[in-house]
Amino acid sequence: AESGAILEYLVDRYGEGRFKPKAGTPEALRYLYWMHFAEGTAMPPLLMKLVFDTVEKKSPLLVRPIAAGIAQKVKGMIVTPNIRRHLDFMESELAERPWFAGDEFTAADVQMSFPLEAS
Predict the structure, then answer these.
(1) Which pairs with CB-CB distance under 8 Å and at least 24 residues apart come from 84-90?
(2) Which of 24, 43, 49, 57 has the smallest count of CB within 10 Å of its CB?
(3) Which residue, among 78, 86, 80, has the nearest Cα to 112 in the 3D structure?
(4) Residue-wise pLDDT tens digits, 15-53
């Protein structure tokens, strides 16, 4: 949550009217949505992938085959399909406009770079 708060602070304090759409516009709603989508929706399955990758590779040797099997099953049934669905959604949104909030680059695009980089 701190990444979004930091970006909002920087935009409000130093943006001089840039990096954030004007209030009351459809772009402002999109901006708000994507600022929160990044950490609230996109990042949780990426974190789950990181956790289950670690379980799969670094479990104690005696239980590693069982732990790896469970981790692979959870990733295959839940984690990977969610990540794919989110990436497909992001791609479909960007097919309609050059940036997440509209025609202008905003802090929402910076915020969305974090889950995109992690995926």
Answers:
(1) 86/41, 86/42, 86/45, 86/115, 87/119, 90/42, 90/116
(2) 24
(3) 86
(4) 999 999 999 999 999 999 999 999 999 999 999 999 999
